[in-house]
Amino acid sequence: MRTGLGIDVGGSQSRWALAGPDGAVTAQGTLAGFSALQMGSESGLRQVSDILSNLLVELSPYGGVSSVRAGVTGFGGLHERSGQALQALLVKALNVPGDAVVISNDIELACLAAFEPGKGYLVYAGTGSIAGFVDAQGEFHRAGGRGGMLDDGGSGYWIAVEALRHIWRAEDEAPGCWVDSPMALALFKEIGGSDWSLSRQLVYGASRGRIGLLALAVAASADIDPVAHDILQRAGFELARLGNAMLNRFGKRPMVLAGRVPQLHPLIEQSMRQRLLPGGDLRQVHLQAHIAAARMALRLTP
After folding, report:
1. May I ask the CATH class of domain 4-111+289-298?
2. pTM, rounded to two decimals
3. Distance in angstroms (rounded) separating the CA atoms of residues 11 and 38
């Protein structure tokens, strides 16, 4: 029986779905997140290989996989060594033919899950942030999504770093003032304490996905802490900048806002709407890109 496997890989979590010949989902689940950029090192290759081995275990009760459609954060194309290594790993781990595996970046996959080519824009905010558009010719266009070192404004990682930056600058000026900050109390509870060594270990030792999870604590304190409120409002402004880039480049089209960050607090979508240019027709949705990918996989012909 022909089955299509869809995989949506983000920085903090991966989701997968298996679809039967009629497109009905027969199984789905979650795995650890990863990036195609990890394929450039031996340790990263082992980590991704272990994650795919866990996926194979989860798939074992359902028989084999016929074809795979994957969207992976950090994927830059098969012309890159990391992209070639990832495709080879998927082929080997899932025991499928090479021409039955199609990989794109995760945002291109999400765009196709949200709109038919040429019909609309996606602004996505999770661990990172990016706007995407697949035009009528099937070409993918982007704004943002360049990582925390350069930008990722409005993402979970950005929110967390903005919060920690404020807290530790305030501590420089008035040591111990964190006890009067609901946001600092919430973040230090998640980190495990208020000692700088704990924050340092997290910021410089943990993954971007782990750091981005601190955005949950920022959002939880936004209604009682004006600093947290301001950070979330500015996050919305940053996401509007991405949407406006698409509107300026390609004209008026509907726009979808998706990802875990817009779900943190209504303020993020509200502030995005304040700065969005006319013609965006914004709506927030909960995308099921892994399910859409599984159905796309069924259309592949090995």
Report:
1. alpha beta
2. 0.86
3. 11
